[in-house]
Amino acid sequence: MQQHRIRVEDIVIGERHRALSDEACDRLASSMKDIGLRQPISVRIVDEMIVDGDLTAGVPVLVAGRHRLEAARRLGWTHIDCIEVDDDESHAELWEIDENLMRADLTAAQEAEHLSRRKRLWMEINKGGKKKATPGGPQDVGFASDTSAKIGQSKPQINSKIAIAEKMGPDLQLVAGTSLDKLVELKALARMPEQERHDLAARAAAGEPVTAISVGDVTAHQFKALMGAWNRAGEAARNQFLEEIDTPVFDRTRASR
After folding, report:
1. How many CA atoms lie within 13 A of 68 on its CB side?
2. Which residues, including other chains, have CB under 8 Å from residue 63's CB and lie 6 or more apart?
3. pLDDT digits (tens, 9 = 90+) for 117-148
4. Contact (Cβ atoms closer than 8 angstroms) between residue 107 and residue 80
């Protein structure tokens, strides 16, 4: 990897996986104004590509750091520090996705979409499988294991979110930023019939505050929570609980405390 100082206006942005956040750009601009750019953006240099209708050589294309680049624009910077990565388009996109996934500001829908896209890219790049060196020799590494090591989530969490994305298809983008953009809502949406799910997603996209969680979902969630509390409780606590609910008149006020 090489580090360069490149003209801000020369950097081609292209399509991004995450929409620009004005609030995030303003925060970054304030920080960069005070302390400068602590983490350079990353670019890849494309030998030739069409830019503004002209064939241009040696074009810097953004890989990661869209918000930092926009903050630099807002500050009026003419140049910005960049790390040049020697990646093709697929590896560059994977880099962008991983950087986004490691940040804490993705919504549930964005995260599911990112993971689903990461899986498709990873499978294309690692057609023959991926291996890592171990004391016992080369070991196969699956997609979920590789992603878990990169972003710090468990394999079941990753697989569950990808399953949601694959089940919902284009409806996942419809619900981004709406009242349905929560993991519990996405799980409920994924269980709905396709047309019913699409209609609800369209209502949410139009700005209607809707929910996909049914009374049955709430009951199931509460039951699971109760069973979890029971399983974690000791024998004395369980016996006290049984005595409480076995009284002729169950004091709900006391039970709720």
Report:
1. 20
2. 41, 42, 43, 44, 85, 87, 92, 95, 96
3. 999 999 988 886 677 766 767 777 789 988 99
4. no
SS (H, E, C) 208-221: CCCCCCCHHHHHHH
Confidence category of residue 170, pLDDT binned at 50, 70, 90: very high
CA angle, 183 as apex, 213 and 157 as ends, to 5°?
Answer: 130
Of 145, 194, 184, 142, nearest in space to 161 by CA: 184
The span from the CA of 177 to the CA of 204, in Å, is 9
Tokens, residue 44: 């890849």
Contacts of 150 (CB under 8 A, 6+ apart): 98, 101, 102
CA distance 117 to 115: 5
The pTM of this model reads 0.65
